[in-house]
Design brief:
Layout (H helix, E strand, L loop, with lengths): L3 H13 L1 H9 L4 H12 L1 H18 L12
Helix pairs in contact: 1-2, 1-4, 2-3, 2-4, 3-4
Keywords: Membrane, Signal, Transmembrane, Transmembrane helix
Organism: Arabidopsis thaliana x Arabidopsis arenosa
Family: Belongs to the UPF0057 (PMP3) family.
């Protein structure tokens, strides 16, 4: 689990340079990075919105460990 300061820094980088924030979080040769790059080229604000989505919300969906049941305590 990421600390609050780490998430804050990722969000700050995503606001300043959206593709860099996605690149640091997901990798450089991923679909998320390419989508963010295209959105940033077409318009800065859509790039920021997508980068924030990738950094904040996409991680929560896949945070379960592989093989672990969803209702384990």
């Amino acid at each position: 689990m990421a600390s609050n300061m780490e998430v804050f820094c990722e969000i700050l980088i995503a606001i300043l340079l959206p593709p860099l924030g996605v690149c640091l979080k997901r990798g450089c040769c991923t679909v998320e990075f390419l989508i963010c790059l295209v959105l940033t080229i077409l318009g800065y604000i859509p790039g920021i919105i997508y980068a924030l989505y990738v950094i904040v919300f996409q991680n929560r969906e896949g945070s379960h460990e592989l093989g672990a049941p969803l209702n384990s305590a």
